């Protein structure tokens, strides 16, 4: 045998920290025990048991997307695979796409549209601001796109497109299909697929849903689904061809071997959302994120985005002058075992507020780790004032049990 067993192999015990880090970054986020347990099970990918699970995943997804008629499919792959599935199936080569870009992920949608040879017009929104429906309308009138792509929450710049419903309504008036990336926002804040007239909504597992990475969901409107069925050109992506995926998701037959463990995990994540109910879950996320924001400001630090455009699901904090963001992250994880995220551009660090991240105990530990690490690095701030602001904003007497 020419190739020998590699030397010095470590077991996972020797690689992973003794105590897991608290994942408070922009994803992946902590998963509930039920989700973790489901992810450890393998069953047959076809047959009655799987069929029953698939039916429930579709039913629960319709609730979470708020759609009666939406055509729901699962995707074996990251949020990006679901994004690519939306783009590949709804964008015909040579057609026109308007991509509203607020940062890294919305630009990824533009790049995906380019790769399927659409003529892509980018509308780059000024850093730190939400897209303005009037400006989007001007672009739609001028360029007459067949498809518009947009994010609800831009995780990279921590901006929220707060007027998404208006933008979708304008697109609809001009007969333009709307693809929305709701990876970080779904189940953390209102999203009404039918009411807003969204044609494709994408989510990943590891963010708002508090599930594992690598298994995603997509919902198509009936208009979008008709469009897909009427297409007779051959898609370039075999795995992401929605008509083929439909074999598994609606016809109990084989497309590719579905990631059964991941689908079981998504089932549990969705079931926990249904048990909590969307309204209660939205309120928990809002309260938690606002309390975190109050705590950060209470220490004397600045949030990156103004309140009117601020995303609550991922909070961007300006790195104070003289502090190295990377050093801050490593101090937090080494000393306090709390992980938060750096940035893709602006000098910010980001704390996630998605799913299990929005729990009182995680908030206190994270804010303390954040302030104490900055202190260690020489930043002057008022840590007790920040902790007090977190506590009083949470209104612990009223909400301790819920959160
Ligand atoms: C994380 C994220 C994605 C990409 O998800 P992956 O699972 O990393 O492919 C896309 N859009 C948004 C808004 C995200 O936050």
Automatic annotation (TrEMBL):
MF-aspect GO terms: transaminase activity
Cofactor(s) of this protein: pyridoxal 5'-phosphate
Keyword entries, A-Z: Aminotransferase, Pyridoxal phosphate, Transferase
UniProt domain Aminotransferase class V: residue ranges: 43-342
Gene3D superfamilies: Aspartate Aminotransferase, domain 1 (3.90.1150.10), Type I PLP-dependent aspartate aminotransferase-like (Major domain) (3.40.640.10)
UniProt xrefs under InterPro entries: Aminotrans_V_dom (IPR000192), Aminotrans_V_PyrdxlP_BS (IPR020578), PyrdxlP-dep_Trfase (IPR015424), PyrdxlP-dep_Trfase_major (IPR015421), PyrdxlP-dep_Trfase_small (IPR015422), SP_NH2Trfase/AEP_transaminase (IPR024169)
Database matches in Pfam families: Aminotran_5 (PF00266)
PROSITE patterns documented for this protein: AA_TRANSFER_CLASS_5
Database matches in PANTHER family: ALANINE--GLYOXYLATE AMINOTRANSFERASE, AMINOTRANSFERASE CLASS V
Protein family according to the UniProt entry: Belongs to the class-V pyridoxal-phosphate-dependent aminotransferase family.
Protein name, per record: Aminotransferase class V-fold PLP-dependent enzyme
Lineage of source species: Bacteria, Pseudomonadati, Pseudomonadota, Gammaproteobacteria, Alteromonadales
